[in-house]
TrEMBL record:
Any one annotated GO CC term: extracellular region
Cofactor note: Binds 1 heme b (iron(II)-protoporphyrin IX) group per subunit.
InterPro entries hit by this protein: Haem_peroxidase, Haem_peroxidase_sf, Peroxidase_pln, Peroxidases_AS, Peroxidases_heam-ligand_BS, Secretory_peroxidase
Protein's name according to its UniProt entry: Peroxidase
Main localization (coarse): secreted
Residues that, per the record, bind Ca(2+) 2: T209, D254, D262
Signal peptide region: 1-29
Family: Belongs to the peroxidase family. Ascorbate peroxidase subfamily.
EC numbers on record: 1.11.1.7
Positions of the Plant heme peroxidase family profile domain: 38-334
Site keyed Transition state stabilizer: positions: R75
Reaction catalysed by this enzyme: 2 a phenolic donor + H2O2 = 2 a phenolic radical donor + 2 H2O
The species this protein was found in: Nicotiana tabacum (Common tobacco)
């Protein structure tokens, strides 16, 4: 009897130490990526303590009216970070110096409302705290809230980015944003250049669990010949939505739950119902297939890897400290001081009148 008690106590101790041990490794595995020099988890803790609640509360209202705006804001942050770093350059209008990043082909399908939402958030934040928070920081926070408020993970965003004073050329924009026609070999190579590994690539692609696409982004898989890797019924339905190769229509990217940030995108890929070649080929290529399968089976795993990759993405080539500037209006660089001053003056007059 006594020996049974001793041995079961021992077993219990053994099991709990195993659990402790495995928990240690789980939390190690969940450890967040390092913060780059100049950014910090607590950057505005004393100078603008209400920053995150201003952004979140406003976006709760925006998404209540139109949940699709969440996808637009998430994609905007991605397009900002991949081209010239997360410096808000995608927000800038063109100038006499030439056309902007904004007018490069991949950016033409960014939602017009997304730019307005970011500047509205910027105005609310600056009214509360003064001009101390950059448009690029606001875009990073908006993307996080887009994920969380549609059902995805909540995560911390390191802050302190400064806004760039120049935008990229249209060619540089094209060079940095991969086309949806790309296969996994291209995708892995292009993202490895930005220090993303295959797990990051598959996790980031999971952002396609929300939002829409224009037909022209994938109709090369339908016309003239149907991509043999695509499910037949899915292809027929897409043909109904996109009757010609250059139809202006749009379709949902995740047919199972288009407005919810979950792991159903991977279930779509497993069912051969992924929209782009860049999506579906992740399930064909042996280097990424198992990652797709594991994310499809385990949403928590996907969320952990997604958060990790987003925090990495949000720190790509950031400007910090004395670099760049804090824009007074997200679409105009301060260099054009007269214009910025006029804009600010107008905003103050308007705010006082309201
Ligand atoms: C790296 C490979 C990627 C490719 C090739 C790609 C391509 C595209 C394309 C072609 C569209 C549809 C545009 C349209 O026709 O309207 C789209 C939409 C979208 N993408 Fe990606 N994307 C990639 C990665 C990402 C990443 C990393 C994110 C975010 C972390 C993201 C978030 C989104 C979202 C949320 C939408 C829906 C936008 C909306 O509804 O307005 N994508 N993507």
């Amino acid at each position: 009897m006594a020996s049974t008690t001793v041995s079961s106590t021992f077993e219990l101790l053994f099991i709990s130490s195993l659990l402790l041990f495995s928990q240690f490794f789980v939390s190690e595995a969940q450890g967040l990526p390092p913060v780059v020099k100049g950014l910090s988890w607590t950057f505005f803790q004393s100078s603008c303590p209400k920053l995150e609640s201003i952004v979140r509360k406003r976006l709760e209202r925006v998404f209540k009216d139109d949940v699709g705006q969440a996808a637009g804001l998430l994609r905007l942050h991605f397009h900002d970070c991949f081209v010239q770093g997360c410096d808000g350059s995608v927000l800038l209008d063109g100038s006499a110096g030439g056309p902007s990043e904004k007018t490069a082909i991949p950016n033409l399908t960014l939602r017009k409302e997304s730019f307005k939402i970011i500047d509205d958030l910027r105005e609310r934040v600056h009214k509360e705290c003064g001009r101390i928070v950059s448009c690029s920081d606001i875009t990073a926070l908006a993307a996080r809230d887009a994920v969380f408020l549609t059902g995805g993970p909540n995560y911390v965003v390191p802050l302190g980015r400064r806004d760039g004073q120049n935008f990229a050329t249209e060619q540089a924009t094209l060079d940095n944003l991969v086309a949806p026609t790309a296969n996994t070999t291209t995708l892995l190579a292009r993202l490895a250049a930005k220090d993303f590994d295959p797990t990051d690539v598959v996790a980031l692609s999971g952002a396609h669990t929300i939002g829409i696409s224009h037909c022209t982004s994938f109709t090369e898989r339908l016309y003239p010949n149907q991509d043999s890797t695509m499910d037949k019924t899915f292809a027929n339905n897409l043909k109904t939505s996109c009757p010609t190769a250059n139809s202006n229509n749009t379709v949902n990217m995740d047919i199972l739950s288009p407005n919810v940030f979950d792991n159903k995108y991977y279930v779509d890929l497993i069912n051969r119902k992924g929209l782009f070649t860049s999506d579906q080929d992740l399930f064909t290529d042996r280097r990424t297939k198992n990652i797709v399968t594991s994310f499809g089976a385990n949403q928590t795993l996907f969320f952990n890897k997604f958060v990790n990759a987003m925090i990495k993405m949000g720190q790509l080539n950031v400007l910090t400290g004395g670099q760049g500037e804090i824009r007074a209006k997200c679409s105009v660089r301060n260099k054009d001081k007269l214009l910025a001053a006029v804009v600010e003056g107008l905003e103050k007059t308007l705010a006082a009148a309201l």
